[in-house]
Amino acid sequence: MGFVKHWWKRKAMLAFWNWSWDELAAFDLPTMFQYVHNQTGQQLHYVGHSLGTLTALAAFSKKQLVDVMRSAALLGPVAYMGQIISPVAKVASDILAANESFWLGLAKFDPIGDASRTLIQDVCNTPGVDCSDLLTAFTGPNCCLDRSKFGAFLSHGPQSTATKNLIHQSQMIKRGTLAMYDYNNEDENKKHYGQLTPPVYDMTNIPNDVALFLGCGAKDALSDTKDVQLLLDSLKDHVKDKLVVQTTENYAHVDFLLATNAKEVMYDPLIAFFKLH
């Protein structure tokens, strides 16, 4: 009886964590948007950071969300990831890709769990990766962090994610593509997508009159300038007054959240943009 209970528990856990950011873009974000819209009767202003920008852009490219949204502010925008300069992210993606079946078997990735410690240890043991300042090695040299806020920030995150979600992002880093999760099996891809390869998210399909504010950091190792430029190239036909790009020269990926000057540098211009739309 104990074995049966354990088997069902594991089966349920695997099912619960069987998702990547594809599902966040297709289901979670639209559900949240619709709930707020239904409760308020108003269109939304959206603010996303990092993965929250990726899921939003993916949804926009499918014409989702835009009918209940007034504007979106995307901080540390992530779409393409093939040219990121984060040594930690690049090496981690190699490790995850080299043994996908093992990592997928874990289903849930706890950032303070044993698997995370093992992954970080393997990353930091890789020649050329300096983990003496892990945050900088991962996100870039943040300029202006208010370290008094770290305790409050860490009390709410980072949260667990699906290992499949990390595998998906590792595929993007290694291949430079912006596509749905690749099952690395033509039959599985065919079953899920009706085609042998994963469908791409075409950023040129984002309606060109959607009001977008992109807050970028020139030192951001996860939302690097070359990959951001690929996104901007896709938005080259956007209505000019509907697209604002603000680049802060000394910002990296966490500055958007915890910089001492974030209000003046980023949030005030963001709110001004919202008021215009």
From TrEMBL:
What is this protein identified as?
A: AB hydrolase-1 domain-containing protein
Q: Does the keyword Heme apply?
A: no
Any one GO BP annotation for this protein = lipid catabolic process
Gene3D superfamilies (alphabetical): alpha/beta hydrolase (3.40.50.1820)
Coiled coil stretches, renumbered: none
Q: Signal peptide position in this chain?
A: 1-26
Q: Which SUPFAM superfamilies match?
A: alpha/beta-Hydrolases
Instruction: Read off the InterPro entries from this record.
Output: AB_hydrolase_1, AB_hydrolase_fold
Organism equals Jatropha curcas
Keywords associated with the record: Lipid degradation, Lipid metabolism, Signal
What region holds the AB hydrolase-1 domain? 22-85
